[in-house]
Amino acid sequence: MSEHRDRVILHCDMNGFFASVELLSHPELRDRPMAVCGNPDKRHGIILAKNELAKKAGVVTAETVWQALKKCPDLQFVPPHMSRYKHYSKLINEIYQRFTDMVEPFSIDESWLDVTASQSLFGSGEEIADTIRETVKKELGLTLSAGVSFNKIFAKMGSEYKKPDATTVISRENYREILWPLPAREMFFVGKVTAQKLTSAGINTIGDIAVTNPDVLEGMLGKQGRQLWEYTNGLDESPVARVGEGEKIKSVGNGITFSRDLVTEDDIVTAVTSLSDTVAGRLRKYGMKACGVKVDIKDPYFKVISRQKQFFTPTNLACELANSAIDIIHSSWKKGSPIRMLTITGINLTDEIFDEQLSIFGGDSISRKKGEQIERTMDEVRKKYGSASIGFAAVIDNDIGAFVRSYEEEEGCGSKKRKE
User: Fold this and answer.
1) How far is CA 157 from CA 145, 206, 226, in A?
2) Phi, psi of 183 (to 5 degrees)
């Protein structure tokens, strides 16, 4: 029987990616605290990224502009340029592909690489990670941190362990020493609510999760509990996809923090119409339909609720997504209570072809076909004349910050929880 050979997985995470790309165009800001943000004149502008000087001043991603300025009064702001970030993301992943064809992007600025078979050409996993860091720095002027491990989860945590511009090796021999003393909140996939549940049960560190009976964790957290036990004990076997073999899309969403609170019914209709239009357009572009819709609502005091509703018939029509989202808001949110942010997500996706087999069982199939023809015509107009060339009347000339977004600009820029 042949001896089991561990995989060698890298996780490469760009350091302050948006801010670093902007500094290439604004070298005069390199020695000053700076941040990439939405419109700072709007009260809900948020920090999207920041450089190391801003980070040292206490500025954090996703806080509001005014909160950042209280911490760092001389903070300099630059607007985001998503097309520029996508361009550099493509160049970075092309560098990764010089070392392996098993490159799986996790977001616009993070990727996993399986370099198990590459070691005979380029050296150990640590040596490959160091070579990649130096290559990206030399060719693009950007830095990254890399984690090297025997599975994807520990590689990801290795890239977070030491920043900026560093390589961290997490092996079978040292992962208990490096990771287990860390707070439970530092474990990949452990969010604020999960961390609170763990802490209330006396589970304070990653090591505590690892030595807790998995049945107990599953009783507390459901399936996630057992999964966390496996991850903390190094039992992740998930593969790194080859280039072009990424996982099938599971959901498509869009969210906006509005320039003022939504209060009236008209405000809600405008916001939901705009968001649903973008989600529906992206679903059609991917050849998918949603079997349900999820609505996330945040108020000015950061209270958040999340509700979802399943469809009888899968859809990629903006009107159907919007109607269901409005129904959710009416049934779940007190009328007149202010809304600061809305996110609408098409969930439980299926191929468009599948819908043809179901349409005869639900709804008016003729009117749905007409609606689909209209919205696909809108897609073609936008493709030819630009994303703002045509839209729903409810969104025109609004004062809440809702607008028609380019589906292409949003690719690769999906939201994700992270820390920098």
Assistant:
1) 11, 12, 19
2) -55, 150
